[in-house]
Design a protein that fits this description.
This protein is an alpha/beta fold. The protein contains eleven helices and eleven strands.
Length: 300
């Protein structure tokens, strides 16, 4: 069984940038892939996608309660564009409505920006996790900016020890290994169109900062959605299998589905590694559904 910790859908999809799914298209894709249910994360920052409301996701989850689980999302600049905005009543309202976490947080701001740190303060206070997507730079595209070595992520983990943070996306997963150059951190949107950047494909010579942060900070979790974690694990299967085994209690299967036909390669990788004995059935079960079951408070 699979439970998806990270997907997207719109009640009324707009076919700009990404060919986003409707709720029905997402569920149809789940049926094709053998996914029992999944978390729908609202997109609220305007850097690249058209923002949606939390009510959009709540309505879809209420229509399909056995398949879709809502997260809420709040742009840290919302309401007053201030570093001391009181987000607690707003986040508590959405938690009371059934939202299980906060995300996907991806405005193009520094992760250490006081407005973002303020949002995290209130999320910790209310008891909501946060899912963060990162960017290689500022000024173009989407995603929260962190320096190589993820110092601002570590600052956040230290500052809010009771805040569960889901690491997600190329910038986070690239740091599974020591970077040869900063160009290996993923992809950056150029001002006049297109992307530059790359991700490493060679075997891992030395582990990076991300596994070290996982050992040091129990509030850091791994979101295995989009194609990046699959690519980073697959580049060195021995290292990847050991990584998943060591951190099995904090790795969560995910898809980041953004279109009705988007491939989800991590399913094949996990199935293959289980079937060939690279990872145990226990590790496989934790990653594919048991961790999500526990975290989301779902019935077994």
């Amino acid at each position: 069984m699979f439970i998806d910790i990270h997907a997207h859908a719109y009640r009324y999809p707009q076919k700009f940038v990404c060919n986003f799914c409707s709720a029905e298209e997402l569920i149809a894709r789940y049926d094709e892939l053998g996914i029992a249910k999944g978390v729908v994360q609202p997109i609220v920052s305007s850097e690249i996608y058209l923002p949606q409301t939390n009510e959009d996701v709540l309505d879809m989850a209420e229509k399909y309660p056995d398949r879709l689980i809502p997260f809420c999302n709040v742009d840290p600049r919302a309401l007053y564009n201030a570093p001391d905005t009181n987000f607690t009543p707003l986040l508590q309202y959405y938690k009371d409505r059934g939202c299980k976490g906060l995300g996907e947080v991806m405005p193009n701001m520094e992760l250490r920006d006081p407005k973002l740190q303020n949002l995290f303060y209130h999320a910790e206070k209310v008891g909501l996790s946060v899912t963060i997507d990162n960017s290689m730079g500022l000024g173009s595209g989407f995603g929260v900016y962190d320096e190589p070595g993820l110092p601002y992520l570590e600052l956040t983990l230290m500052t809010f020890p009771n805040l569960i943070v889901f690491g997600h996306g190329p910038v986070f997963w690239a740091e599974i290994a020591r970077l040869e150059t900063v160009g290996e951190r993923g992809y950056f949107y150029r001002i006049h169109g297109g992307q530059v950047g790359r991700m490493a494909t060679t075997p891992i010579k030395e582990e990076g900062v991300m596994p070290k942060l996982l050992r040091k900070y129990p509030n850091l979790y791994g979101d295995l959605s989009d194609g990046t974690p699959c690519a980073m694990l697959q580049r060195d299967p021995d290292f990847g299998a050991k990584f998943l085994t060591e951190f099995a209690d904090r790795m969560f299967f995910g898809t980041d589905i953004t279109s009705p036909t988007m491939p989800v390669r991590i399913i094949g990788l996990l199935n293959e590694w289980r079937d060939t004995g690279r990872i145990s059935q226990e590790v496989y079960d934790k990653i594919t559904y048991k961790n999500a079951q526990k975290f989301l408070g779902l019935e077994e």
